[in-house]
Give the backbone structure.
Amino acid sequence: MRARLNRRNIIIALLVLLAYPVIANLMILTGAANVLANIKPQKLTMSWESAWTLLPGRFTVSGLEFQSTTPRNQFSLVVDTGKVNVSVFGLLSRTMEITQAEATGVEVRYAKVTEPNQSSSGNAKPPWTIKLDNVSASGIRKVTIQNLTGVDDMTFMGSGTLDTLKMSIVTKGGLMQVDRAVGSMVINNQTGANNDGAPLQIDADLSIASHRPRQFKGKEKLQFFTGTVDAKGNFASIGPVAFLPDSELNLTTTGEGDLEAQLKIENGELMPGSNLTFESKNLKTTFLQFEATGNGTMKASVDSKRNRPVAIQIDLDEFQIAEPGTHAPYLSGSDLNIEGQAHRLLLYSQKSDGTGALSFNIKQGLVEDIRHYNKFIPPNTGLRFLSGSARTWGGFSVDNGVAHGLIEISGTGVTLSARDREIEADFHLSTNLSEGDWRTRVFRLKDSTIRLEKVQVSSKARETDEDWWGEVEIERGRLVWQEPFDISAKMRLTMRDVEPLLHMFRDPEKKKSKIDEFLNVKNIEGQMLAEARDQEIHIDPLYIDSDGLEVISKLSLSRETANGVLYAKFKKVSAHFEIVDKAPRMIGFGGRKKILQEVDLSRLDAQQ
């Protein structure tokens, strides 16, 4: 009895095997299979030029075009010729299992649906499980990726191979993982590239840990990637890529150029042994609050022997600098060097932890329109640059949130206005910043100087000699880097004489008075405390004791006026003055004790 049943089962199986190719190929030839494959075109469309099958689940096809659309994703595939083995019995449990596939002549397109349909989950059918194993392809000629969050649309055209692919995915927001994907591609044409350099060769051996793709956007998915990527050739864009785990440092790059990279990735992190070199004629990089563009090179590497394993160096031969958001360069120059260091480099997200380091150095820069600096001057002080240019050089660094730097600015024949006066001068500014906090933009000023030469003050009625000079040395101070600057400092003064200062107060229509002769002593030295606040400059106190001349004063300067008190002594003659709305008025002779009740000179010796 059992033998008869076995014989009957064998006969049935043979009949099915014999009937299957006849029925299946008949359905293919008559178009019935095409109708079944496209029964829900809003979700799945499929067409082919020719196809045939001999065994259940094994198909040979040519001219295949396939497109799948879900509420969140759209995938399309073009295959010139291919073979595929599908587990028929798995379909009964809503599992599409492809145990082997070979394709030749392939085009792939993946797009994120920008406005996914929100269907009701009450009537939702169970998800499908898709399993791929031993999948390979040759002649991959086009790959298109669109609508990913935080990633520019990309199209790569060339010749590629997929040697091994093993992966699984559960539809409707289920888990996805790639056990292994090994492939390579020579890209001759890519979106955004000049495509006139060496083709881009990419070799990859990657795996993707199990995760739910719906829960992660764009680059966030890279945290599940592990493997190696080697690349060499012309690349459309290196970014924008954020390199440091401190958003305040704002080090990013983007541009088209020649890339050479060997990347070792573990869970989305670059590991020791990784290195990258990128050369571009139009390399754009942001750093701190600046944006630089120019011909240059970026190098990055990970070396566990360094205190901070990740190192990035950007060198621009010729460059222009703008402020992010404006894109209008105000500074041009040569030899800009930017360096960054970090403990880790995550491809998916560099979360701020304050442990990064950044430095930059400008060998030679030119600000063609010095009026750019007007935004840093409190508007009600009445000081404004009118014309001229300035050279600048120096460097700045931030390490674990602590900032310091030395910036030099020098100008020749610069003109500026001070209320109704016009000043022409050569100047040199050396700014020494230390103990700074880049997050709050608060810095210590030390050993900084402002040197003025060939100064001439002019008004409608008269002008001073043009050979005046003066220097302000900041012994100690505080700077808040904002627009405008907030500054408070103790300063030492040296100047040829006080003539330009007197010219700022006296009425230009009047003749020189006794006070001009009284105070016009040569080679003046003094001290003062100055502070820019409430859109005014406050000088309190000002003390000069030089060659028989003593001056004690405090002043408040704004756009339209100047107010304060002043005591002056020359040899044995002294007088007390009050300055009201720019006009000095003599109160009387002597008055040193009285003015010391208003002006506290001991503040000059106090430590800030």
Helices lie at 2-30, 32-37, 499-505, 514-519, 592-598. The first helix runs from residue 2 to 30. Residues 70-116+126-236 form one domain.
